[in-house]
Amino acid sequence: MSGPNSTPVRIGIIGLGTVGGGTVNVLQRNAQEIARRAGREITITQASARDLNKPRICNTDGIALTSNPHDVVNNPDIDVVVELIGGDTLARELVMSAIEQGKHVVTANKALIAKHGNEIFDAAQKKGVMVAFEAAVAGGIPIIKAIREGLAGNRIDWVAGIINGTGNFILTEMRDKGRSFEDVLKEAQELGYAEADPTFDVEGIDAAHKLTILAAIAFGIPLQFEKASTEGISAITTEDVGYAEQLGYRIKHLGIARRTEEGIELRVHPTLIPSKRLIANVDGVMNAVLVKADAVGPTLYYGAGAGAEATASAVVADLVDVVRTLTSDPENRVPHLAFQPGALADTAILPMDEVKTAYYLKMRAQDKPGVLADITQILGNANISIEAVIQKEPSDEATHATIIMLTHLVKEKAMNQAIAQIESLSSTEGKVTRIRVEQLNKDD
Predict the structure, then answer these.
(1) Which DSSP category does 17 fall into?
(2) CA distance 178 to 58
(3) Does one domain contain both 290 and 156?
(4) Using an 8 Å Cβ cutoff, are 388 and 244 in contact?
């Protein structure tokens, strides 16, 4: 490249694991195309890794390697620091140090942004540097850029996403092959989709990190991870998956952020969605985000939510963005959270008790006259109307039948009270299974 800015931009990469290695590969393989887009070459000057002798998926010839990530941050020859180690302790320290030294940052770290993003963006603003984080949500899908820039003329109504591939893989296998949660989780761990400790994936914490970020850029609010309501999929049974299918629904682990008159909903939980919705047919480890906006209506973004090169695609796109704006006035850059920093709203996050949804209910009740009437009376007294009922007759030796109900919209608080009353009936056995239902209509 020639011209006034023909000096290559020098980057340092912290972490040479899956995403770090993928980023090196993409930068090296597509170097010419990337330089044509960015206006300058991007060269990897230095990289850090915990174990320098470990085999890599990338070629590190010509890259100075170190086992100390602080060496990368403190290297005066580096213009942009790429943080790919994950976690929110050491990563936070390194990112804040890079910003303090006037270096731009690219990160794929959703926990870091969801928990410390407000502080990080404030520091970056003061120093006039960029912190780019497209790879933090939905891997290679450019969802941050789509909402922040592509939909900038819209008022966003809601966002609903399958934003954890591990959970989606488990639910897909349960539906397609009738396997149990435990059985599929074990395979997901063997395939490397799930960690040895799968809590972050299957209990919704990973998805809540990503949803927190999506909600902030969709509605122009500060990042508030601690207010996200999370529920996992470990209690979902193959029976539930089958009943959902009979009713015309599929169970997906969704992150939902919705703007309402009372406040903003921020919730991750298993959800029944109509089988005919495109997002209901996103299977395996794939991710998808459905965004409903006032002018454009619903738009769906689908693709690989993880993986070396899929995530590297987003990291490198962020690097191109950073390089393009290196010479621009910081005031003219796209704001980190889509809205100008002084224009973020203090809209309240709605407590889960106040959220209105429809419900799938499954309960075991004695197979005798009057029991169903008792249950429907409890629901009726709580102003909960029923859309559908399935009653599965007990087998010859059993005394309890399985009852499945779909309800219309009701506040969570009222549903919780009704469930407590149903569970206290002498004619019911055990706990009531409750899964929320979303239609995801263009009119919602």
Answers:
(1) S
(2) 39
(3) yes
(4) no
Give CA–CA dist 107/121, Å, rounded. Answer: 13
363 residue type, one letter:
M
Residues 124, 101 contacting (CB under 8 angstroms)? no
Is 319 contained in some domain? yes
Give the burial string for 256-272 (b: 16+ CB within 10 Å, else e).
bbbbeeebbbbbbbbbb
Give the separation between CA 92 and CA 83, rounded to whole angstroms: 10
Residue 179 near residue 238 (C-beta atoms within 8 A): yes
Cβ partners under 8 Å of residue 439, min gap 6: 273, 274, 358
Type and span of the H or E element at 433: strand 428-437
Asked whether residue 136 is assigned to any structural domain, the reply reads: yes
Report yes or no: 228 and 208 within 8 Å, Cβ to Cβ: yes
Residues 359 and 272 in one domain: no
User: How many angstroms separate the CA atoms of 314 and 293, rounded?
Assistant: 24
Sole residue written with tokens 């395979």: 187
**CATH code where residue 38 lies:** 3.40.50.720
SS3 labels along 173-230: HHHHHCCCHHHHHHHHHHHCCCCCCCHHHHCCHHHHHHHHHHHHHHHCCCCCHHHCEE
What residues are labeled active site? 210
Residue 245 covered by a domain = yes
pTM of the model: 0.94
**Model pLDDT for residues 322-381, shown as the tens digit of each residue:** 998 886 666 777 777 767 777 788 899 999 999 999 999 999 998 888 889 999 999 999
Residues 80, 11: contact at Cβ < 8 Å? yes
* Domain limits for position 322: 9-140+308-343
Q: Please check whether residue 245 is in contact with residue 404, taking contact to mean a CB–CB distance below 8 angstroms.
A: no
Phi/psi at 69 (5° precision):
-60, -25
Give helix 18-29 / helix 308-325 axis angle, nearest 10°: 60
In a domain, 42, yes or no: yes
Angle, vertex CA 250, rays to CA 145 and CA 289, nearest 5: 0
First-last CA distance in the chain: 50
Distances in Å between the alpha carbon of 7 and those of 3, 11, 393? Answer: 9, 13, 75
pLDDT tier, 397 (very low <50, low <70, confident <90, very high otherwise): low
* Sign of the dihedral through C-alpha 114, 187, 287, 259: negative
* Contact status, residue 201 vs residue 194, Cβ threshold 8 Å: yes
